[in-house]
Amino acid sequence: MAHEIVTLANLQGHEKAITGIALPQRSSKLYTASKDGTVRVWDCNTGQCIRVVNLGSEAGALISTGPWVFCGARNVVKAWNIETNAEFSLDGPVGQVRAMEFDKEMLFAGTDKGVVMVWKAKGPFELVASLTGHTAAVVCLRIGSSATKLYSGSGDNTIKVWDLETLQCVATLSGHSGVVTSLVCWDQFLISGSLDCTIKVWHMTEAGNFNLEVIYTHDVEHGIVALFGMHDAQVKPVLFCSSSDNSIRLYDLPSFTERAILFGKQEVLAIQVGVGGLFFSGDASGLLSVWKWLEPAVKARDDKRIALRKRGREGIEGCGWHPNKHICARLMLT
What we know:
Helix content is 1%, strand content 59%. It is built from one helix and 28 strands. It has one helix spanning 296-299, and strands spanning 4-11, 18-22, 29-34, 38-43, 49-54, 61-65, 68-81, 87-103, 106-111, 116-120, 126-131, 138-143, 149-154, 158-163, 168-174, 180-186, 189-194, 198-204, 212-219, 224-231, 237-243, 247-252, 257-263, 268-273, 278-283, 288-294, 316-322, 327-333. The strands form seven sheets. It has a six-stranded antiparallel sheet, with no helix packed on it. Strands 1-26-25-24 form a four-stranded antiparallel sheet. A four-stranded antiparallel sheet has the order 2-3-4-5, with no helix packed on it. A hairpin with a 7-residue loop joins strand 18 and strand 19.
C-alpha cells in the first residue's frame, strides 16, 4: 500500500463512549466529550489530561470554531472561550443534544426531540429559532459547501434541507431506510451515511431550488456510524467511514476505492482530523486514539518531528505526535 497508518497513542480517561473530539485552531489543547458526563482537555505537548469538566449529564456532541468550544448535553449547551476563559450555559434545548454545527455567526444544536435550536452570536448568544419537522432525534448536522443550507439527518430516516437565510425547511430527502447517522459536504455534493448499510451521494437536481437526488449508493456490510472528510498530501479528497464492526475505512473520492482499513477496540463514534496527516478517533469504550497517516516521503523520517509544507496554509498550529515516544509535539505548517 502506498500509504501507511500507524497508531501513535491510545489515551485512557473517559469511562464511557466518546461522542465528540475538537481541536481548536491555534491551540495546543485537544478536547473530548463523553457519555460519562465529562469533557476532558488534553495537553498536546505531553499527552496528559490537564482538566476534567463535569457536565452533570452525558455529552452528546462537541465542536469548536475560532476561540469557542461548544458541548451539547441534556437541556443545555455549554460554551467556552479558550482565549478569554469565559464560560456560558445556553438554555433552550429540551432533551439531549446529539449534534451541533456553527456557521455565519449562528450555532445549531439538534436534540433527541427532533428539534434544531438556533442561537445567534449576540451578547454573546441569543436563542432565535427552533426548527421543527423531524419526527425522531436529530443525529447529525452539516452546513452546505455554499454556506446557504443546513442539512439535518435524523432517526426518522430523512435528511432535511434548511435555508440559512429564512431558517425554513425547503426540502426533505428520503432515500435511506435507516437512521441517518452522519453527513459530509464535499464540493457540490452531500454524502450521507446510515445504519441501513449504505453511503449515498446526493447532487442538486436540474430544477435546483434546494432539491437533491441520489446519484450514487455505496453498499457496505455494516451500518455507518460516522463519516469525516479530509484531503491527503496531494490535496485529493478522502472519506473516513466508521462502521458498526469497529472499523474505520478510508475511501478515495469520487471513486470510493478503499484506501485503508483500521480496527478499533469498539465502535468509533467520533473522528477528528488534525494537521500533518494526524487524525483522532474516539470509541464506545471511551478510548481516544491518535493516528498518523505516513506519506512515502515521510516514512524514512518518522522518528523525528516533521514540519510539513503545504501551499496556501500558513501559520496554522496543530498537534503532532512523536511516533516512538508516544508524546505530543507541536507542528507549524508554513
